[in-house]
Design brief:
single chain, 562 residues, alpha/beta, nine-stranded mixed beta sheet, eight-stranded parallel beta sheet, 33% helix
């Protein structure tokens, strides 16, 4: 009998701990790293030649919405295509448990609106064999997986389950309801939840960046600080779990005070989402980084995940919903294509839209990508303000008239904020910023940020040389795994689970966007594959070789991160 199952021979090992790279062999036995050093090929059942290749820990994706997709796509693509071996689901306070049978339809409609996940793909793939969170994680465990999965409990289904949808969206929880909310959350932690997540915005406000399928605010927007602290106290009693939290309000000082109190009460990590760079406001991210530095210096477990991918979104107005912070746009872009066209054609609506100040994905950064209207094809590739100036018309009128003439299928592209690579460099080089925010599984007609590990190595290490490859692998694997409580994952040391990427550093790259009609029901999404990954291994088994899926499903539900 051989000593090892697999030997990765002659590779350059980067172990994820920021230690210098080492030319060595790596052996795997029973899904774990068994040895690193000079090893004999005869001691393994199979040998993978890694001469000239990097051998590193698989990547950890902390911010995804694969809650439904994992039931039809075991590899959680596009993340799984780019070396991600572990994902966290249930972000932003959304999810599918606990959900009573009567609320299943609303749960799917919610994710369709707020995260733009195909309704038909959910309707056709979700088995709905659960009501409670423990039953949900059992379902996740039993489904074949090509990546490891760690589940948050989203606060929106939790609050709705206890209070009812109408009440949860109208008021704070009572003391009795908070006791029940804490009890159900405690039950979820006992079953394997990694913690809880929430996106909290002032209800019915310009500061609200998300809306439910019916245009109303979410239960998380009405959630009181006391409810959050009740959840934090559950985590303190168990000394387990972590939180993903976004707070957007008109009182940042109050938000900061609450998050610091929550960190002190729970004693557990809080991952704040998301730090963004805005070339029009250079101090925005610097102030945030300074606060997180002060938290670290005071020993408060508050961490920040930053949007470090190129968030330049292609979009069409038949599905666009990312201006929900602006009431007039939110109302006009809710409903069917016909309903949207009717609203956008209304002179009163136009007047209201022109008064709105769109901050995220601003109109001044919108570019015309493709149109079939002959009179406008010459403007493809130009920014919307340039087009408006050239034709001598109002920017909003030009934007909407072109789109309406093509049934809202005109192809546009927009940046999240004013791009500035020198400012982005500050974030990439900051030692305690977690990179990524892939939003994997969400906004799939516009977003392909699941490619971020490939992009970071290809662009920020190899092309720009902003940080070392050792540092980048720590940021992409070990650091997020440690913050999120992934037991023993994120590094290549003896005894660690063998989540591994083997790749060609000089030729690693993200390939161009593709349109894939692969969703259940035949709907489409944007995807981006990668080139340069020789092998991707999850728990010691190969899931991809040279971009081709092997069909293996060695992924696991990581209850409590282990």
């Amino acid at each position: 009998m051989t000593r090892y199952d697999t030997l990765i021979k002659n590779g350059t090992v980067i172990d994820g701990r920021r230690t210098p790279r080492l030319r060595a062999d790596l052996a795997i036995k029973d899904g774990k790293v068994a040895a690193i050093g000079k090893l004999h090929p005869g001691d393994a059942e199979r040998t993978l030649d890694a001469d000239g290749l990097i051998v590193a820990p698989g990547f950890v994706d902390l911010h995804t919405h694969y809650d439904a997709q994992l039931f039809w796509d075991p590899y959680c693509s596009i993340s799984g295509l780019h070396g991600v071996t572990s994902v966290v689901i249930g972000n932003c306070g959304y999810g599918f448990a606990p959900v009573r049978p009567a609320m299943r339809e609303a749960a799917m409609r919610t994710l369709t609106r707020v995260e733009q996940i195909s309704y038909d793909s959910m309707r056709l793939s979700l088995p709905w064999t659960w009501e409670s969170f423990p039953e949900f994680v059992d379902a996740v465990e039993s489904t074949p997986k090509g990546v490891n999965v760690l589940p948050y409990m989203g606060v929106n289904p939790l609050l709705t389950y206890v209070m009812g949808e109408k009440e949860a969206k109208a008021r704070h929880a009572t003391d009795e309801e908070n006791t029940e909310i804490a009890r159900i959350f405690d039950e979820a932690l006992a079953a394997g939840a990694c913690g809880w997540s929430a996106l909290r915005c002032p209800p019915d406000s310009y500061s609200s960046v998300h809306r439910d399928h019916d245009g109303t605010s979410f239960a998380s927007d009405l959630m009181s600080n006391e409810t959050a602290l009740a959840l934090g106290r559950v985590m303190a009693r168990r000394n387990a779990g972590f939180m993903e939290l976004t707070m957007v309000s008109n009182d940042p000082a109050a938000d900061i005070a609450h998050m610091e109190e929550l960190a002190r009460v729970s004693g557990r990590p809080i991952i704040w989402n998301t730090l963004v760079v805005d070339g029009a406001d250079p101090e925005r991210h610097r102030m945030a980084m300074a606060w997180f530095d002060s938290c670290r210096e005071r020993g408060l477990p508050l961490y920040c995940q930053a949007t470090t991918t190129d968030v330049s979104m292609p979009f069409t107005l038949d599905v666009w919903n990312l201006w929900d912070a602006n009431p007039a746009w939110q109302q006009a872009l809710t409903g069917t294509v016909e309903e949207r066209i009717t609203a956008l054609s209304d002179p009163r609506t136009r007047k209201a839209l022109k008064k709105e100040n769109v901050v995220l994905f601003p109109l001044r950064l919108v570019t015309l990508i493709r149109t079939e209207l002959v009179e406008y094809t010459a403007y493809e590739g130009k920014l919307l303000p340039e087009i408006a100036d050239a034709v001598g018309r109002d920017l909003v009128d030009v934007f909407l008239d072109i789109s309406i003439a093509e049934q809202l299928r005109t192809q546009w592209r927009v940046d999240l904020l004013e791009p500035d690579s020198s400012l982005l460099r500050e974030v990439i080089q900051h030692p305690w910023m977690i990179p990524g925010v892939s939003d994997g599984g969400a906004h799939s007609k516009m977003l392909t940020s699941g490619r971020f590990p490939t992009e970071h190595i290809e662009t920020y290490v190899r092309e720009y040389q902003w940080i070392s490859l050792e540092e980048m692998h720590w940021k992409l694997s070990a650091f997020p795994a440690w913050v999120a409580g992934f037991k023993n994952r994120g590094t290549l040391v003896e005894g660690a689970p063998a989540d591994i990427v083997v790749y060609d550093y000089e030729n690693l790259r993200s390939l161009p966007e593709e349109i894939s009609h692969d969703l259940p029901g035949g709907d489409w999404r944007r995807t981006r594959r990668a080139e340069g990954y020789r092998h991707i291994l999850v728990n010691g088994e190969i899931t991809y070789t040279d971009g081709t899926c092997t069909g293996a499903t060695p992924g696991r539900l990581l209850r409590h991160g282990g």
